[in-house]
Design goal:
With 216 residues, this protein is of the alpha+beta class. It has a single domain, classed as Class II aldolase/adducin N-terminal domain (L-fuculose-1-phosphate Aldolase), CATH 3.40.225.10. Helices cover 44% and strands 14% of the residues. A hairpin with a 3-residue loop joins β6 and β7. α1 packs parallel to α6, α3 crosses α6 and α4 packs antiparallel against α6. It is globular. The two termini are 18 Å apart. The structure holds zinc ion. The site of zinc ion has 5 residues, from loops.
Length: 216
């Protein structure tokens, strides 16, 4: 059994445990060479067994499973074709993030891990119909230059050079959302200045942490 299946099963459980999806919501995948392993359609992410991840040939689209892949397959494959270095795509429905972006609240850096893990820019895409070409086009356009995209009235797409890196980004988005919510409920949230962001981007210690995440 491929190691990638084991890692996906573990991360699927964590995503549900952390409340980043509920029920059969969200979908995740990982890439190994020309093959992508996707969550099967209709399954809860914490109930997918190692042999149930749907293997698909990225180049030909051939499916090696009796199960149907997630209905967001087109978006997942589109991302891998757009960003060859990406090894994992995690699409979640985190409630606080969805609430904030759908109310028009912007996500901007305001704590060190935000900058180090999510990056300076976290764009929001206006609502598009899920499960098809529209969402694939909208996400692929943005994902060329960022690692996290927020989908208004829908959720989050995070990518990474490892499953763990994509998962960490998904987690930090919702953690940031909780802090933004707390901050704006209590007063005016202070965001980082450009100078503060630059300093974190240039920390050697952050380069080391990033390298560790990419290789897990
Ligand atoms: Zn979704």
């Amino acid at each position: 059994m491929e190691e990638i299946r084991k890692k996906l099963t573990e991360i699927g459980k964590k995503i549900v445990e952390k409340g980043l999806v509920a029920g059969p919501g969200g979908n995740i995948s990982a890439r190994e060479d020309d093959f992508v392993f996707l969550s099967p359609s209709g399954f809860f992410l914490d109930e997918i067994k190692e042999d149930e991840w749907v293997k698909v040939n990225l180049k030909t689209g051939e499916i090696f499973s009796s199960l149907r892949p997630t209905c967001e397959i087109s978006m997942h494959l589109g991302i891998y074709l757009t960003r060859p270095e990406v090894k994992a795509v995690i699409h979640t429905h985190p409630p606080i993030t969805i609430g904030l972006i759908s109310a028009g609240i912007k996500f901007k850096p305001f704590f060190p891990d935000y900058v180090a893990i999510l990056g300076k820019e976290v764009p929001v895409i206006d609502y598009v119909v899920p499960a098809g070409e529209e969402i694939r086009k909208a996400v692929c356009k943005e994902i060329k230059k960022v690692n996290v995209v927020l989908l208004k009235n829908h959720g989050v797409v995070a990518v990474g050079e490892s499953i763990k890196e994509a998962y960490t980004r998904s987690l930090i988005v919702e953690e940031a959302a909780k802090s933004i919510l707390a901050g704006i409920c209590c007063g005016k949230l202070r965001y980082f200045t450009e100078k503060e962001i630059d300093k974190i981007e240039n920390l050697e210690a952050e380069d080391y942490r990033k390298a560790i995440l990419k290789n897990q």
